[in-house]
Every structure is written in C-alpha cells, then in structure tokens.
Amino acid sequence: MCHVIGEAIEVAVGRRQVLTGVAAGAAASLVLGKPASAAEIVSQRKRIEATKIEAAQYRTKLMLLGTAGGPAFWPGTDRRSTSSAVAVGDAIYMVDCGDGAGRRLQDAWGSETDGASAIKDVRALFLTHLHSDHIADYPTLILYGTFAGLQVKTPLKVFGPGRRGEMEPVFAPSGVAPTSLPVINPENPTPGTKDMTGYLYQAFATDLNDRVRDTHRPDPNLTIVAQDIVIPEIAGFKSPNETPEPKMEPFKVYEDDRVRVSAILVNHFPVWPAFAFRFDTDDGSIVFSGDTCVSENLIRLARGADILVHEVILSAWVDKILPAPRSEVEESIHNHLLNAHTPVEKVGKVAADAGVSMLVLSHIVPGNARSEELQTAQHGFGGKLVIGEDLLQIGVGKKRI
C-alpha cells in the first residue's frame, strides 16, 4: 500500500490545481509541508549528535537511518526513506533499505570506524516487504559492496519475502468490470527476494562484469547471499488474498553469536508476505513493525520487548488531502491508506498491549509531519515515546563499563 501514498499525493495535487487563492495555498501546505527554520535545523543536528554520543556508551543500539514512509521525496524535510539498523558490538543488522539507506548508514556508523565503509560491518539485511520505499537502495549494496569491503568468506546475508504467487486483485469501482492491466514480467510477476537479487545482477551486468574483469573484484553472487524467508505451515491460512495475516506464532529467521531474529506475518494487504521482525540480544530486544495496520500478530511478536519501532500515518492528513465528498476512487485510496497502515492515534494502544518499554515512531506518513502532530501516539501508552528522526540512536540495556 505504500504506492497508494503516492497516488494520494497525485490526487491532492490534482485538486489543488483547480483551486484558487487562499484555498490553493492551504491545499499546497497539506502536501508540501512547512520547511524547518535555520534554528530548528541546528537544534535537530545537536539533538541527533547527542543521541549518538549517548548510544556509543552501549554495546547494543538502535540506529534509525531513514524515517519517512511512502515512495515520495517529501519537501520541507530531510527525512529519507525507511531503513533502520541494530548494532551489537561491531556487527550491524539492517532492516529495510529505502532510498538513502547506504549514505545514512555511513553517516551513522562511519565515526565508529574512523570513516571506513560501514557496509563491511553489516552481517545481515532483513526486508519487511518489497515495496519500493523499503528496497530502493538495495542495489547500492550490490554495486558498492565489494568496494566497501564485503568478502566471499563473510558474505552479507539478505532475508526477505518470497514470491507472492497469485496476483493481487484489481480495484474497480462498483458496476465497472476490472480493466485489463499490463503485467510486468509476466513469467514471474511477483518475484521474491532471491529472484529480485538475481534480476538486479542481470540489470547491472555491464558494471558488475567490468568490476570483476578490470579490477578483480569478487563475484557479487558470493559476497551477497539472498534467500527467501520460508513461512511455516499455518493452520487456517488459505491464500494471500483471503488470509494475509493468519494467527500464528513467531518463527526464527536467523541466529548468530550476537542476535536471534524472529519474524511474523503482518497485514499490509494487498502486499504479501509482509513481515515484522524481532531482534533478541543479550542486552535487550528490539521489534520492527514493518508496514501494517493494527496487528495482533505484531503484538504477539513484540510482547515484553524493550523497544518497538512502529510505522504511523496521520489520519488527519489523509482526511485533508482526500476531503469529503469523495469519488469512489478517492474513497478507495482513503480507505486503503488507513487500512494498510496504523493511524498515529492507535499506535499507543498497540505498544501498551505488547507491554513494551519504549515506542519509537518511524516510516512516518507524511514524511514532513511535524513532531507536535505525532504526539497523539502517546494515547493509551504509559511508556516512553520517541518521535523518530534520521540518524537518531538509542542504547539498549546497560551502559558499557
């Protein structure tokens, strides 16, 4: 449903073009946002730097790389697309890889390694789902990886959704037969993570072959190893279109000497599969919701975690860019946005039901939402609320002695 965010913006801009005067200016502000002042920018940078200094005192820490949601370059903000990382000692584990993730990772981790490439310290990447705002910078890892120190003996492991299988339904207004729409890559229209990675090798073969032959870089097939997450059999599961989020228990995806990673299906219909991930370390636990509406599976996965990183959307923003009366198409977009994401006023109860200590907002829609607009996330939650910002870091567990 992330693509529907882009469609909603298009609808809002289209409406704006037929407005005049004050009304047009008001409509524009809904999409464009209010640019931060110079003083606000300086204050933000100081605040972010302070979190890095504080988090450096911990063995395990959460690093927010990009905190905006949707396939959009949100004006009036420097938020980049969604991506996060968990650092345990000198090992990094990334969650999603949206636009700008590579650069943000370097900004967050470069100071830890005297400016050396951060990619070489990434042990694994976990993709919640395959929407563009979660994977746009994935090709960067492939193309820059061998220059950044990825090695055949310690390849970067990538875990993500497998093939959807059946195509998602086509929306059509009532009384109108679904139109015949083009199908991209009809021989495999819903590729999974392993397929996608192979297609990227094909797309960039000119560059990759040149690097291997001219500079003797290692074969990228050996430095990045992608695999589809195998979902266990689930009682009651029928199909992606009928039961996208069947009740289930978390299952292990990955484990090494630093971390154990578990996954569970969440509801981001019609995208399927869509996962939430939990990272358990000796210092504490961090859970990432991925994109989802309010999800009982997620609550089950996050039970008792130290930190829950959860996506949010502003209901007021959706109502304003798609005001009533709405056409049937506009009503569909409106409902999709609110049913495939978690309204900010509902996320606090999710955190409370899961019994987490801290709620961190990320994948924020709109990406230029102001901090004060997001405070309603505290409703129903007695723990600590953190409004996510790019490069913000949070320590987990006890400080290192």
TrEMBL record:
It comes from the Bacteria. Residues 78-142 form the Metallo-beta-lactamase domain. Signal peptide: none annotated. Keywords: Hydrolase. The keyword Hydrolase applies. GO terms for molecular function: 3'-tRNA processing endoribonuclease activity. Pfam families: Lactamase_B (PF00753). Gene3D superfamilies: Ribonuclease Z/Hydroxyacylglutathione hydrolase-like (3.60.15.10). This is MBL fold metallo-hydrolase. It comes from Parvibaculum sedimenti.
